[in-house]
């Protein structure tokens, strides 16, 4: 049975408010949750960027939901050994309720530590090494590694009862096919149907057949269409660019400059904008038909409680 989850956006809400929203989503019938993990927001108007791993402990303790996070375990901001320890601790305290997705990150978040920002192929290599390092530590092995990063005589003494699943975060068929070789599953974001189908096919053909597939759905719901569109434009217009354009930007102001020519009507190409819960339901049913078994709904505007309540009443019951 598919799980419909709530996406908690640290960029848009203070951590204490986000925790209340996760609780509200659980009460409304959402059965899973996930959150972002960034150092900066994508625009200054979003206005927040709490620490995901601190927040996850509180969220797991305050709800009964399974939680996941998309992170860059070797992007520069984190060291894989330290992140492996954090993930093991959460998996130990909350068995079978925590997963993580591994991506290569963006300069906006990873370059803050002053390390060089390598090209995509080098970041892929570093990511694969990071996942192998974390898995070895979760097995209780002593790890020594000298490659894209160094690990010296590292061993975890508090081990998880089972290794947390590690998904590949993929935005293109190429990344999905590559990640299918080593990941426990896939996570991607909503895209036009033909593009999403190609990504799913690449993941399955690359070795992902039978593995779980998660979709982070970008939507904007409000009681009025104009309100939904304006909310998407105000909050999410800096997030409509492909990675090859945006991943090297280093500040929210640079994202804002890139988005200067984006118009409100452009948002329909990137976000599912509608005031009709029935239309959102149809889109989500199409996602399930593609084979996704976990859908995480990210209402990109700020009207979170309105969205949670409307979907809890009119959308989630139809997907169970």
UniProtKB/TrEMBL annotation:
<feature type="domain" description="Luciferase-like">
    <location>
        <begin position="7"/>
        <end position="262"/>
    </location>
</feature>
<dbReference type="GO" id="GO:0016705">
    <property type="term" value="F:oxidoreductase activity, acting on paired donors, with incorporation or reduction of molecular oxygen"/>
</dbReference>
<keyword id="KW-0560">Oxidoreductase</keyword>
<dbReference type="InterPro" id="IPR023907">
    <property type="entry name" value="Non-F420_Flavin_OxRdtase"/>
</dbReference>
<protein>
    <submittedName>
        <fullName>Putative non-F420 flavinoid oxidoreductase</fullName>
    </submittedName>
</protein>
<dbReference type="InterPro" id="IPR019945">
    <property type="entry name" value="F420_G6P_DH-rel"/>
</dbReference>
<dbReference type="InterPro" id="IPR011251">
    <property type="entry name" value="Luciferase-like_dom"/>
</dbReference>
<dbReference type="Pfam" id="PF00296">
    <property type="entry name" value="Bac_luciferase"/>
</dbReference>
<dbReference type="InterPro" id="IPR036661">
    <property type="entry name" value="Luciferase-like_sf"/>
</dbReference>
<dbReference type="InterPro" id="IPR050564">
    <property type="entry name" value="F420-G6PD/mer"/>
</dbReference>
């Amino acid at each position: 049975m598919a799980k419909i989850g709530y996406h908690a956006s640290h960029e848009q809400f203070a951590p204490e408010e986000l925790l209340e929203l996760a609780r509200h989503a659980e009460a409304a019938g959402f059965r899973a949750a996930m959150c972002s993990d960034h150092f900066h927001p994508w625009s200054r108007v979003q206005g927040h960027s709490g620490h995901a791993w601190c927040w996850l402990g509180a969220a797991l303790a305050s709800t009964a939901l399974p939680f996941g996070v998309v992170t860059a375990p070797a992007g520069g901001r984190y060291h894989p050994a330290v992140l492996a320890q954090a993930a093991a601790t959460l998996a130990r305290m909350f068995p079978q309720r925590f997963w993580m997705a591994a991506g290569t990150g963006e300069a906006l978040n990873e370059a803050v530590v002053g390390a060089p920002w390598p090209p995509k192929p080098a970041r892929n290599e570093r990511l694969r090494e990071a996942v192998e390092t974390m898995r070895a530590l979760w097995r209780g092995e002593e790890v020594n590694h000298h490659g894209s990063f160094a690990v010296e005589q590292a061993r975890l003494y508090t081990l998880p009862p089972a290794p947390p699943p590690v998904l590949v975060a993929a935005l293109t068929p190429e990344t999905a096919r590559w990640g299918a070789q080593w990941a426990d599953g896939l996570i991607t974001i909503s895209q036009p149907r033909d593009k999403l189908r190609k990504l799913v096919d690449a993941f399955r053909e690359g070795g992902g057949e039978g593995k779980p597939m998660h979709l982070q759905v970008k939507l904007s719901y409000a009681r009025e269409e104009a309100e939904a569109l304006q909310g998407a434009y105000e909050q999410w217009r800096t997030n409509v660019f492909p990675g090859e354009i945006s991943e090297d930007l280093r500040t929210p102001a640079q994202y804002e400059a890139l988005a200067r020519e984006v118009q409100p009507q452009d948002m329909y190409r990137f976000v599912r904008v509608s005031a009709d819960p029935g239309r959102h339901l149809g889109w989500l049913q199409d996602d399930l038909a593609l084979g996704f078994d976990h859908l995480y709904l990210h209402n990109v505007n700020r009207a979170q409680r309105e969205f949670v309540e409307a979907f809890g009443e009119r959308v989630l019951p139809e997907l169970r």
